[in-house]
Amino acid sequence: MSALLILIAASGLAREVLATLENQSRYRVLGIVDDEPSLHGTAVDGVGVLGPLDVINEYHDAQLLICAGHGRTRAII
Prior knowledge:
Layout: E1 3-8, H1 12-21, E2 27-33, E3 43-44, E4 47-51, E5 63-66, H2 71-76
């Protein structure tokens, strides 16, 4: 069974992670969360941006992967 995964931050690093996970069955990416309102409802390489960080509270069984490349942003998350 695939583990559920949510990516945090719709970034270039998220695109790299999605490319890495593309042909594997260990994880099933549910979506991406990002606090930037203009990204909500869009997609990154076919994976939907679900909304702000608070959305992760709706997915108790999902694992999280921070995809913020900058140290400052990562520290805030």
